[in-house]
Amino acid sequence: MRLGLALAFLSGAEVLLLDEPTTHLDLQMRLRLEELLEGYPGAVGMISHDRALIARVATTVYYLEAGLLQRVAGGYETYLQEKERIQRTVEKARHEAIKERLRLLQAVPDRRRPGTDRRVREKAQLAVRAQRIQAPDPLPPERRWSLEIRAEGTPRLVAEGKELSKSYSLRPTSNAEGPVEVKAVLRGVSFRIFRGDRIALLGPNGAGKTTLLRLLLSRERPDGGECALMPGVRTAYLDQHHHGLEPHIPLFAQFTAHYGEARAAMLLGRMGFRPPRWFDPPSAFSGGERARAGLALLAGIQAGLLVLDEPTNHLELELLEALERALVDYPGTLLFVSHDRALVQKVATRFWGIEGGKLVEYPGYPEAEAAMLGRGAVRLDPLGELPQELLTPPQERDLEEERLVLFERLEDPRLTERERARVRAELVALEEELFQKYAREFYLPPRYTHRVVCRGVEVYADVELDFYRFWSREGSLSGERVGGAVRLWGQASEATLAGALQILFELEDVGLVVYEGRVFAFSAYDKRFVRTLPKTKRRRRHRGAWAKAVRTG
């Protein structure tokens, strides 16, 4: 895209035509493009859904509606005002015309004038006059998309990363010779994400934004450091290329697997997909259709943490505004990558950026934009603790204050033993209430796909597409499935590993598992611990045997 724009500007053409020029451009390039367009000596015509670009550059707006091309002299704000004015004017004219028509049809001829025939003629004349009143045609109804994203509860601390690092090997082309270059994308990245955060991750293309999202979701393994989602946090992820969809599986089959046929049909229909398209794979769709399908998938998911990577790419203006409204109303935790300035400023409450492989936080969007343009800006630590007023919710703060009052009363030497015992009883009841509130606040029962018990350890698994998370009180593991094999990484006890293997082999139809150089095959597992037992005892007996066998690998 940048090369094409450079060639277009260097051509010196009298008329420059651009079709969605900001797609895949980072913020710095978008601002530079605006400067070039403002100073371009020739005429410029462009199709764009970037509201900030249109507002800054456009002097005349053409919009296509119901097959008619309408012209508005002025910028984007003028277009919005003119469109609203036209709608009000047409609605008022229709209302007045219909009102006058009804008045004439319901009018009663003058009874004081003699003759029935005369009154009949007057009635007919009124009807003719009513028919001659032409009400303007109604404007075509605006397509207003409806999108609602639901959330579920999470612990106070949603996710945490400590000293994360990630590098990639850049191999030379087939005709080139030389050593493989290693590029460090992230270095020493640490952060905390708290419940209710709305974080915009900003930065130039190639800075490592998508890599950080994938590390957070265990889609990739870090070279160093730790990254963990808290137990009980359910995630939803829309990547920028496939929008959370499998590219070669029919769309309806994917939705049915998640929600059942009835709900799948409702979600697809709400996003404008008709039955003939349901059975096509997403790879056959345009970019805009894939984006709509991804939003339809998102509307059915109930997740505590929503992770979006360039969600506005290929979206038309009406759907972009629907997404914006849905994100503003979303009650969960949000982490998203976007170069859409209007969306970022309206939705985000925290602003992160990646500078030279390091993660930084900005106090607000103006500071973030200044930093990306190379100007001076204040930077914060993304690992910072919650502000003190947020550490204790209001209800708990009231109870804490009441608790302090009771402690002070206990120290009053004038209290009798009976009064002292009554205060102690109140204090015990108050502390029990505080404990229950803090327990609900900081820990929620984990949501999981599978649960097993190995050697007295409860092991939980959360499965999303081809990615796995396993956890217990003795550690956690992440994994990715490729074909019939799963690669695991992380730090966990042998009991946790045994539970993970049990889930993968018994419940997920995995044939091979690789963990830190150790290879576990289902064939050996099945032969050794299942087939030698009677069918009625197989499932119950072989679990414990497999958990013990893991000790020897």
Automatic annotation (TrEMBL):
Matches recorded under PROSITE patterns: ABC_TRANSPORTER_1, ABC_TRANSPORTER_2
Q: Which domain of life is it from?
A: Bacteria
Which protein are we looking at?
ABC transporter related protein
Q: Give the source lineage, highest ranks first.
A: Bacteria, Thermotogati, Deinococcota, Deinococci, Thermales
Ranges of residues in domain ABC transporter = 170-381
Q: Which UniProt keywords apply?
A: ATP-binding, Nucleotide-binding, Repeat
A GO molecular function term, named singly, is: ATP binding
Q: Which Pfam families match?
A: ABC_tran (PF00005)
Entry-linked InterPro entries: AAA+_ATPase, ABC_transporter-like_ATP-bd, ABC_transporter-like_CS, ABCF, P-loop_NTPase
